[in-house]
TrEMBL record:
Keywords for this protein: Glycosidase, Hydrolase, Metal-binding, Signal, Zinc
Highest taxon listed in the record's lineage: Eukaryota
GO term, biological process aspect, one: mannose metabolic process
This protein's name: Alpha-mannosidase
Record family assignment: Belongs to the glycosyl hydrolase 38 family.
SUPFAM superfamilies in the record: Families 57/38 glycoside transferase middle domain (SSF88688), Galactose mutarotase-like (SSF74650), Glycoside hydrolase/deacetylase (SSF88713)
Stored SMART domains: Alpha-mann_mid
Region (Disordered): 957-977
EC numbers for this chain: 3.2.1.-
Gene Ontology CC terms, in alphabetical order: extracellular region; lysosome
Keyword Glycoprotein: no
Needed co-factor(s): Zn(2+)
Domain Glycoside hydrolase family 38 central, chain residue ranges per copy: 351-434
Length: 995
């Protein structure tokens, strides 16, 4: 084939060139070498390290050292750090320093992993970025400035905001709806300025590049320019032979390569507005033999460049930074995109990637529990170990426990981890890392408490046995809530640190028939803990005079068969607290309605478990799997009869609904009674529901469907990463309409009509949808198996036979009330007090210890303490000073006095008349309980920039003033301890306290 047969086409392309780009420019092709290295997907981290990751860095460093023009981008920091700390030689480290300094090896994204954007929480995204960025800055003095989110399944609009706050200049995404991408290509709209938040100012917008249809790689042989073939994993090859490589570049084969490259360039050029073409060169697990890759590509590129004028383009190795600097210099007026996200994602007409919102539900729950525990451990360590040192605990050991969990929580944010799209043994690895990390932090927290307030031995208490409970509130607000302790005796006396009795309620445990659940009402100030002593009381109440917890009373209601019509609502049982009356229907044993007292409105509401059935034979039609959701039809009830129990007590009334079939699914609904007034508002204003779902039958996808009398027009709202809400109107599609109307719910979703809103809050990710007017359904669990050969060969099936126990909080009320409570309730659910229980061995409780000596840390209600931690980084926060230290080759010591503080305004600009206002916080007085603040430095999101020195690129826009959020300028860095936080702002500080 003639090598330059496509040239006439390029001339035609010149005619298509947009008028503002005259005269026809010479195309410049930026070949960006990269390797996509999933942190666990088909193989564990260790297996990947062994099979190719180590060789990627070994051979890339060598190949780059040999030829000046070569470039490489490094993405996943978990791998890079494992290589750096465990493999790299002194020589390699020196070379890497040089390559990084010259901009030939560029770190992009810089997180520990390439995080998923649909089912991850914003706090965890920030954590994993902070972990990676801290290491890079500490080691090289560099700060990543371009993102590379090229494989996550859909793109959230939280991400552009985060990356802007981290100091990035450009953001790269790829997986968006196929039909949208096609339209954007045709209209040359793959590049735009994205304003991810409707409340934040223009400062938080970011230039965004959507990779074209070739994405970050092209897999079929002979098109990927991958001469190093396929990585070989331990164990026998599946097809009995090694995968073949592409043919080497020789005099004979070069025309084929240059022709192909030219054709690709031609396509790409027609989709973009500038003459600068980004060509990601690499794929999954490539560049483990980088010399071979580069040696072949060098020939192709040299050949083209020697006849560039004839080809009509030149080609060069580049980093992403090189490419975006060129685009930035183009002076194009870019389109602006508002805060809408790119979720859900369909890769084609038949594949809606909405299944993974609920795949491996158990792992999703564990990941968030680990994250919450880490959050609590961080602030407790900061407050009680480093700022108030005590004799028994080694801070270095404590930091190690936290670091282990930081790493595990970061890892599981990977786009094949928390998504549930990995093979089972990789899932086991995630679970093991999380569990080990959690054990360490539990141990740390228990040691902190024990060492600070050792119980005195001495005079025995009234009875032997019993427990001490320490309950820590990790939020920076006073929290009133009910904690549940499991004890093995129903008659107990429970007292607080002052020896005073505490309101409590005992009932038989639903999990362990021989044990009792003890519900205890507690009020704990911000970042403080309280002590409780729980002792069995074998003598009667009259003798001791001590009040005992009320033992709850259980009423049973016989089974009711599922009805197809017939009478309902004839006989209702009310279950009340100060905010709601829930009516249960004795004709069905289902929920009938909820009366919300404050707005005096009754909303009809019923709930049931249902299942979507999935096809198991790929030859019979489309299938559901870890990634995609393709139900065979509409959902069907997953039960035949319901039995009910109501367990009533003074603090909590629990409704237990058992949905019968095999297996049995259960809903435990709880209404709590606490103090009146603002203290008890969050406790009163929700119905807590815990579900028990599973094991599912094969090829079932289980949902909880809530049907209400709200006139919602099938409009659903669901969140992006717990940060902001998106409006999701129901849409009809040619194909896959049920699945394409599914969305991720990371922390919340709601439906509403003019008068009322029903909010669902969760502490783990699920799928959520509204398929009918007034309905909302949450996908809780999936179990799938089919005969897809690729999945079977790779063991990538979703045969998940576990039982899951997700929890939702239901908030019903006026829009005003629910807007007020939504964010704080979400946090209250996510960050419930941490209970540490230990056995009492003839000791007496330490009187007067605990919260009475602690000064509360209390932030205004619209400001959330996003993190309070001691990262232990080894760098000066003065950039010049840090670079000098690095140049001298000195290793700085970990700064254990530098406290990382991040504050987040929870409300959108127009969400609430009061809570949406900017808030001024005096850090000195808020943090008084921790010590005396001597300095406050404002930093970029991940801590690496002094914000007053951070200059991001500005981009010209077609409508520079349109769609602007609040119009507020970003807040200036603080001069003193007073900071003002505007709606949705996230601000990061280094705080130094007096020694
Ligand atoms: Zn990937």
């Amino acid at each position: 084939m003639e090598p330059r047969g496509w040239l006439p086409l390029l001339l035609q392309l010149g005619l298509m060139w947009p008028p503002w780009a005259q005269p026809e420019p010479q195309l410049r092709v930026f070949v960006v070498p990269h390797s996509h290295m999933d942190v666990g997907w088909l193989h564990t981290v260790q297996e990947n390290m062994q099979a190719y990751v180590t060789n990627v860095y070994n051979s890339v460093v060598e190949a780059l050292t040999l030829e000046k023009k070569r470039r490489f981008i490094a993405v996943e920091q978990e791998y890079f750090r494992l290589w750096w700390d465990g493999v790299a030689s002194h020589w390699q480290k020196r070379k890497v320093h040089q390559l990084v300094a010259k901009g030939r090896l560029e770190f992009v994204l810089g997180g520990q992993v390439m995080h998923d954007e649909a089912v991850t929480h914003i706090d965890d995204q920030i954590l994993q970025l902070t972990e990676g960025h801290g290491f890079l800055y500490e080691t090289f003095g560099v700060r990543p400035q371009i993102s590379w989110q090229v494989d996550p399944f859909g793109a959230s609009s939280t991400t552009p905001t985060l990356f802007a706050l981290a100091g990035f200049n450009a953001h790269v995404i790829s997986r968006i709806d196929y039909d949208l991408k096609e339209a954007m290509q045709d209209n040359r709209q793959l590049q735009f300025v994205w304003r991810g938040s409707r409340s934040l100012s223009a400062e938080q917008e970011i230039f965004t590049h959507v990779l074209d249809q070739f994405s970050y790689s092209k897999v079929p042989r002979y098109e990927g320019f991958n001469w190093d073939g396929e990585a070989i994993f331990p164990g026998p090859s599946l097809d009995g032979k090694y995968p073949s490589m592409e043919i080497p570049v020789t005099e004979d084969s070069i025309p084929d390569f240059t022709h192909l490259l030219g054709k690709r360039v031609l396509h790409k050029a027609s989709w973009f507005q500038t003459a600068h073409i980004l060509w990601p060169w690499g794929c999954d697990r490539q560049f483990f033999n980088a010399s071979l890759q580069f040696a072949n590509m060098d020939i192709v590129m040299d050949y083209i460049n020697s006849e560039a004028s004839e080809f009509g383009f030149s080609v060069e190795y580049a980093t992403l930074g090189d490419y975006f600097r060129a685009v930035h210099s183009d002076q194009v007026a870019w389109q602006v995109r508002d805060h809408r996200d790119f979720l859900p994602y369909s890769s084609d007409m038949h594949h809606a990637w909405t299944g993974f919102y609920a795949s491996r539900s158990g792992l999703k729950a564990l990941a968030r529990r680990a994250s919450s525990l880490l959050y609590a451990g961080e602030s407790m360590f900061t407050r009680y170990v480093l700022l108030a040192p005590h004799p028994y605990l080694d801070p270095a050991w404590g930091l190690q426990q936290l670091q282990q969990l930081r790493w595990a929580v970061s890892e599981v944010q990977h786009h094949d981890a928390i998504t549930g799209t990995h093979v089972p043994n990789v899932g086991d690895m995630f679970v093991e890392h999380l569990s080990t990390g959690m054990q360490g932090v539990h141990k740390l927290m228990a040691s902190i408490i024990q060492d600070r307030s050792p119980a005195h031995s001495g005079k025995r208490g009234p009875e032997p046995g019993g427990h001490f409970a320490v309950v820590y509130n990790p939020l920076a607000w006073t929290v009133t809530t009910i904690i549940t302790l499991t004890v093995d005796f129903p008659k107990v006396s429970i007292t607080d640190e002052s020896g005073l009795p505490v309101p409590a309620q005992a009932q038989r445990s639903k999990d362990m028939p021989s044990a009792y659940d003890l519900h205890v009402l507690t009020t704990i100030p911000g970042l403080s803990y309280r002590h409780y002593s729980i002792r069995p009381s074998r003598s009667s109440q009259e003798e001791t005079g001590e009040p005992e917890p009320f033992v709850a009373k259980t009423t049973q209601f016989g089974g009711r068969l599922r009805r197809y019509g017939g009478q309902v609502g004839g006989s209702l049982v009310p279950v009340k607290n100060g905010c709601y009356i829930v009516f249960m229907d004795l004709d069905t044993n289902l929920m009938h309605s909820v009366w919300e007292r404050q707005s005096n409105r009754k909303v009809y509401m019923t709930q049931q478990f249902m299942e979507y059935h999935a096809n198991s034979d790929v030859w019979q039609g489309p299938i559901s799997d870890n990634y995609v959701f393709t139900p065979s039809g509409t959902a069907e009830p997953a039960w035949e009869a319901v039995r009910m129990e109501i367990v009533e007590g003074p603090l909590v009334t629990e409704i237990r609904q058992y949905f019968y079939r095999l297996p049995t699914f259960t809903i435990y609904s709880r209404l709590a009674r606490g103090p009146q007034g603002s203290d008890g508002a969050l406790l009163c204003h929700h119905i807590e529901q815990e579900y028990q779902v599973g094991p599912l039958e094969l090829n079932r996808e289980a949902i909880l469907r809530t049907s209400t009398s709200l006139n919602t027009g099938r409009v659903l709202y669901s969140d992006n990463n717990g940060y902001q809400m998106q409006r999701r109107p129901y849409r009809n599609y040619k194909n896959n309409t049920i699945a394409r109307n599914y969305y991720p719910m990371v922390q919340s979703a709601f439906i509403q009509d003019r008068r009322s809103r029903l909010v669902l809050l969760s502490n783990q990710a699920h799928g959520v949808s509204s398929q009918r007017n007034g309905q909302v359904e949450v996908m809780l669990h999936r179990r799938l198996w089919n005969n897809d050969k690729w999945a079977l060969n790779n063991d990538l099936t979703l045969n998940d036979s576990s039982v899951v126990h997700p929890v939702l909080w239901l908030l019903l009320g006026s829009r005003t009330l629910t807007s007020d409570l939504h964010q704080r309730s979400g946090l209250a659910l996510q960050h419930q007090p941490v209970v540490m229980l230990r056995e009492m061995n003839g000791e007496i409780a330490p009187r007067g210890s605990g919260s009475r000596q602690q000064e509360a840390v209390t932030l205004p209600p619209s400001v959330h303490l996003q993190i309070l931690s001691i990262p232990g980084w080894k760098y000066s926060s003065n950039h010049t000073e840090h670079l000098q230290t690095l140049q001298k080759g000195h290793e700085a010591k970990a700064d254990l006095r530098r406290v990382l503080l991040r504050l987040q305004h929870l409300y959108e600009v127009d969400q609430d008349p009061v809570l949406s206002r900017p808030v001024t916080v005096n850090l000195q007085s808020v943090l008084r309980g921790l010590g005396s603040v001597v300095s406050v430095e404002e930093r970029s999101l991940t801590g690496t920039w002094d914000v007053s020195e951070m200059r991001r690129w500005t981009w010209s826009m077609r409508d520079p003033h349109g769609h602007r959020g609040s119009g507020t300028l970003p807040s200036p860095p603080p001069r003193g301890p007073e900071v003002t936080i505007y709606p949705k702002e996230i601000r990061t500080f280094f705080i130094h306290f007096q020694e």
